[in-house]
Amino acid sequence: MAADGSESPLTLSEKVWDRHVVHSAAGEPDILFIDLHLIHEVTSPQAFDGLRLAGRSVRHPELTVATADHNVPTTDIDKPVADPVSARQLEVLTANCTEFGITCYPMGNANQGIVHIIGPELGLTLPGMTVVCGDSHTSTHGAFGALAFGIGTSEVEHVLATQTLPQTRPETMSVEVEGDLPAGVTAKDIVLAVIGVIGTAGGSGHVIEYRGSAIRALSMEGRMTVCNMSIEAGARAGMVAPDDTTFAYVEGRPHAPKAAQWEKALEDWRTLGTDVGAQFAKTVTLDASALRPHVTWGTNPGQVVAIDGTVPDPDSFAEEGAREAAARALQYMDLRAGTPLRDISVDTVFIGSCTNGRIEDLRSAATVLRGRQVRSGLRALVVPGSHRVKAQAEAEGLDKVFTAAGFDWREPGCSMCLAMNPDKLAVGERCASTSNRNFEGRQGRGGRTHLVSPAVAAATAVAGHFATPEDLL
Amino acid sequence: MKPLHVVTGRAVPLDRTDVDTDQIIPSDWLKRVERTGFGAGLFSEWRDDRNFILNQTEFIGATILVAGPNFGTGSSREHAVWALMDYGFEVIISPRFGDIFRNNCTKQGLLPAQVDPDFGRALLDSVLKDPSLELTVDVARGTIEVPAAGLTGTFPLDEFTRERLLNGWDDIGLTLRYESSIGEYETHRASWLPVTTG
């Protein structure tokens, strides 16, 4: 309440936070109720062990859903998983879900896919909810106006046992992207540009709300791409206020509310947006019309430039830490300062991940590849984010476009985003990747990752070096 | 978890910024379903380099890691904390931590001591110069002291987390004190909220 007795204006994240507080006391973190808990094979086994050790049960198995994604191979999924350690982890997920009564989509199931792709496509992720997962890219679900964040395994155990989490109230931050995106510039370029501007710690301790006409103009797929990489700016979560684009995406999905419940939900969702006059602790603005396709050159997502640029000189950074980090990154990436990005050749192109493995991403890449060929000698793979995405793409004939161009058309999973399955870079290999992290060794020990949009990845596959679709004309 | 009061010991200076959790514990190690034995995987790709700081004999047995800013960014993998603790670290000092990593530390009883950047720099320089330096980190007082180098610094910790660390309290147990509030909340959740079954 404001001093004059009126309700004080609130931001979207504050509204969602407030309606989930189960217990609040001075000097203690708030205890938040969790509406949806997503789990996968990598960060859950030790949490279930913890429950068993303490003799605890899962409080709400019906608010929890599991899928196998990080470890799954993307070929021969009808055969046993070759890596015995991966196979065991996948088996343990299924066994734990059976023991505790949790719905699980194992490898090959029609609903299986990357955890952050299946939540939205099944209609489990809805506006105004709290969503958590033992995975930092849980921020993806914020695209629906949900408060969604990544947690560690101890917290996974905590949510399983109590359906709540103790959390300290984060600060609010507004990232306003105004204007029309130029042709060929995508949601991925927006978020890479944002991270380039605010840095990998720019969102630390904050929930970012993405606002402005360029965000409103994005599809849900695009908004998910933007929110997905909030964690790469250090933010606790990223959100977009729900609007008609959101509602149109959600309506009719398997778990979305129906009939009278739908109307009730809609009425509620329309109240979620940030109130006029609400204050953000921090505000950053970006001119969408000045954006260009972006490519990372270093070993964190903040080390990024427009494709028309050159690899920066480490000495051009004011701060000593940034200078040293840039110098080390250039050494790891085997790049020289001053090299135009378009002169850098790649061995591998990877299209997929929770950042860019949705249908719109595949359409965007396929548009570039139609009637073209992948540069000879280059390895190119496309990994749909889920079986539903794969089926949709095949119904549209996109698989044929990819394979005709020389891409491998694979089964769904996280795949080469983090190389926990057989899809890896070899030492020294260079990859144009639509994923989210260019960390050292992320796509395989000694591999070199450049983050790009699906359109740039496709054009790069054809050119053999970094390129935009316009470069191919 | 084990209570943490005062840690006195030598430190490893990791003079790098933006050390992400993929570096702390590479993804190959994440396929294991156990919670123990991750120490061997700690910084495993960097440890292949004989000159990497952890491979230098004077730093063996250190219990404190002094890092540059932005330590523990990226992936939420708690395996990073398990690896640091299994290796023998009880305290990580940095001017800034990744949010999820810092959270994961306090759930396991590994102290993330966030220090002023100038103090962090001075600490790194001192330990780089003299690996035998002893540091004393006091959870109750929120202080870091290096008498031989004449350095004293502080780190913030909210009282709730401080009490948890000092007493080794389990978070789930603390939350279940309010189980009736959870039950009460559950009675008035919106009827349109989805369930994962069916």
Structural summary, described in words:
The complex is a heterodimer of chains A (473) and B (198). Chain A has 473 residues and is α/β, with parallel strands linked by helices. Chain A has helices at 12-18, 45-54, 84-100, 115-121, 153-162, 187-198, 213-216, 220-228, 244-250, 259-269, 320-333, 353-356, 359-369, 387-395, 398-405, 454-463, and strands at 21-23, 30-33, 36-40, 64-67, 103-105, 130-133, 147-150, 164-167, 171-178, 206-211, 237-239, 282-287, 294-296, 304-306, 348-351, 379-382, 408-409, 430-433, 448-451. Chain A contains 16 helices and 19 strands. Chain A has a 5-stranded parallel beta sheet, sandwiched between helices. In chain A, strand 9 (171-178), helix 6 and strand 10 form a beta-alpha-beta unit. In chain A, helix 13 (359-369) crosses helix 15. Chain B has 198 residues and is an alpha/beta fold. Chain B has a 4-stranded antiparallel beta sheet, covered by helices on one side. In chain B, strands 2-3-4-5 form a 4-stranded parallel beta sheet. In chain B, strand 3 (64-67), helix 3 (79-87) and strand 4 form a beta-alpha-beta unit. Chain B is globular.
Features:
heterodimer; A: 473 residues; five-stranded parallel β-sheet; 16 helices; 16% strand; globular; B: 198 residues; alpha/beta; four-stranded antiparallel β-sheet; four-stranded parallel β-sheet; 8 helices
- Provide the gyration radius of chain A in Å: 22 Å
Adjacency order of strands in the biggest sheet of chain B? 1-6-7-8
Contiguous runs where pLDDT drops below 50 for at least 5 residues of chain A:
none
Helix content of chain B: 25-40%
How many helices of chain A in DSSP terms?
16
| Arithmetic mean of pLDDT of chain B | 97
Largest interface: A-B, 85 and 58 residues
List segments of chain B where confidence is low: pLDDT < 50 over at least 5 consecutive residues: none
Beta-strand proportion of chain B: 15-25%
Class from helix and strand fractions of chain B: alpha/beta
Largest sheet of chain B: 4 strands, antiparallel
In whole angstroms, the N-to-C terminal distance of chain A is 59 Å
Name the helicity range of chain A: 25-40%
Shape of chain A: globular
Number of strands of chain B: 8
- With strands numbered from the N-terminus, the spatial order across the biggest sheet of chain A is 5-4-3-6-7
